[in-house]
Design goal:
With 193 residues, this protein is mainly α. The chain has 3 domains: 60 residues, no CATH class; 34 residues, no CATH class; 95 residues, no CATH class. The chain contains 7 helices and 2 strands; from the N terminus they run ββααααααα. It has a two-stranded antiparallel sheet with strand order 1-2. Helix 2 runs antiparallel to helix 3 and helix 4 packs across helix 6. The radius of gyration is 23 Å and the shape is extended. This is DUF4371 domain-containing protein. InterPro entries: AtLOH3-like, DUF4371. Keywords: Membrane, Transmembrane, Transmembrane helix. Pfam families: DUF4371.
């Protein structure tokens, strides 16, 4: 767990300071709270003066896929409302489809690349020169993803499908598109990238 303090100094300027990296054995709320309390005590800081806090939940969401599938299966089998059962069954089929996994990984990759630009555009005191540099850098990363990132994306999707025993779509197989009948799956997916 990394801890960063954000505070306002006497000149009313927001400051951020990296405090420490702490190894945590668990990611439960009670364990994280105890770790934060101990770290604050080490630096003689009081939680009573904290006005707000934020947590990055991305690491906790990392392995939620099997849990989501399990909940949907439970609702599909045991819910009393037929509409809920039907909706859960549809979501279960969709969540376990190759298209869902592919688009989820594609969006994750794009959002990681564009995150820095997004944060930079939200700064109130951003100057235009830095914004232009950030836009150029982000465009360069996106172009690089388009030209050279396909294999890694494809590999990540296949690894995810293997890990959770999902049906994989072979990119070399023919994709039946009524408008372009000879197009392959790889051409179709790369066009969306």
């Amino acid at each position: 767990m990394a801890m960063v303090l954000r505070y306002v100094d006497k000149c009313v300027i927001v400051k951020e300071r990296f405090v420490a990296v702490v190894h945590v054995r668990e990611t439960t709320a009670s364990y994280l709270k105890a770790s934060i309390d101990a770290l604050m005590a080490d630096f003689n800081l009081s939680l009573s003066q904290v006005r707000g806090q934020g947590y990055d939940g991305a690491s906790n969401m990392r392995d939620m896929f099997p849990t989501i599938v399990e909940v949907l299966e439970f609702v599909e089998e045991d819910d009393r409302d037929r509409a809920n059962r039907d909706q859960a069954a549809g979501l279960l089929v969709y969540f376990q489809s190759f298209n869902f996994v592919f688009y989820l990984h594609l969006m994750l990759t794009v959002l990681i690349i564009t995150n820095t630009l997004s944060l930079a555009l939200q700064w109130k005191d951003q100057d235009i020169v830095n914004v232009v540099k950030c836009v150029r850098s982000t465009r360069g990363h996106l172009d690089d993803l388009r030209r050279h990132g396909w294999e890694k994306l494809e590999s990540d999707v296949y690894n995810f499908c293997d890990k959770y025993d999902l049906t994989k779509l072979e990119m070399g197989e023919v994709y039946i598109n009524p408008k372009k009948p000879r197009q392959k799956n790889r051409n179709y997916k790369q066009a969306s990238l």
